[in-house]
Write a structure and sequence with these properties.
- The longest helix has 27 residues, at 200-226.
- It is built from 8 helices and 10 strands.
- It is globular, with a radius of gyration of 20 Å.
- With 314 residues, it is an alpha+beta fold.
- It has an 8-stranded antiparallel β-barrel. A two-stranded antiparallel sheet has the order 5-8.
- α6 packs antiparallel against α7.
- The protein has helices spanning 27-36, 113-130, 157-173, 179-185, 200-226, 231-251, 255-266, 274-298; strands spanning 6-11, 16-22, 39-45, 50-56, 71-72, 80-83, 88-96, 101-102, 104-108, 135-140.
- The protein has 2 domains: 6-140, Cyclophilin (Beta Barrel); 157-301, no CATH class.
- 44% of the residues lie in helices and 18% in strands.
- The N and C termini lie far apart (43 Å).
- Pfam families: Cucumopine_C.
- Residues 160-298 form the Cucumopine synthase C-terminal helical bundle domain.
- This is Cucumopine synthase C-terminal helical bundle domain-containing protein.
- InterPro entries: Cucumopine_C.
Length: 314
Amino acid sequence: MNETKRVEITWPGLGITVAAQLDERNPALAQCLWDALPYRSLQGHALVAGYHLYHVAPVHSLLHAPAEYRVDRRTVPDGTLFCSRLQHLGIKYGELTEPMTATPVGQVAEEDLDALIQAGRDVWNAVYTTKEPVIAEVRRAGQDSGHVLPRLPIGDPQLNELVKDVHAETERIWLDPPRELVALHEGRIPSGAGSYETVLTTLLFVNGETRPLGYSCYGGLVRAALDGMPMPWLRQMTRQLAATPAEFLGYCGLDTLWDFTQRLLSGLERLDSHEDFISVMAHMALYCNCLGGWNLHLFPWQAGESLRVVREPA
């Protein structure tokens, strides 16, 4: 165990703080997280897998940092911390049902597990019912809280302006809900999206397109570039993967995302280095992952209250 990497995860709005220690199971991931501290983020909760907290960490390198040690999340102790290529810091606090491999980076202190469970319940209530945002703060033990959203350098001036704008917008919506998403969830959709004037259907499709755009499209493009995929192929894959979902999301009301995407696509031929390509795609990934986090928080999950899992008799 690395005795120097002690962290605190606090939810000031809940009045709860837990201590944790990063370890050497996945040292590269742990170091990425450690180097990014302190930061703040909207706290989310798993909606399918079970008793699991996660939030988007403002750490570009989580998209590609190597992970040597993998586990089935269901089998590890409560309080296990994970970092993932979805740019998540996750914390297991109870039973999980999803058979997913994950990359552990640390452990919440045994004496703080009851507080962690209470935080999990409170966050679930916020995500599922009240819609009051819960902000998580992650910091090195004994140090002050704070927050900086990192910006990666871009050599091309035109694309540097795009990244500047994407970074500024990501910073603006990091802890405050995007106005476009709020309007969408309130049923104010200028395009009229939503057959027979429905809103829930549109919200469902927006959620379903936004998450893979960040997780799979932009995150995947970063990893493909780091794996050495030639630039012409990377540019072609970007056109194939990004354009259609972004155009649909623009139709549904996410005009800023669609504007960024059009600027990106029009400047693709200017991207002639893997370094610049990685920087641009990493910023798009973080922006989309931030949108996805707010989507999951704002979505009216309580609309499905009457739908419950049927337990077959033993």
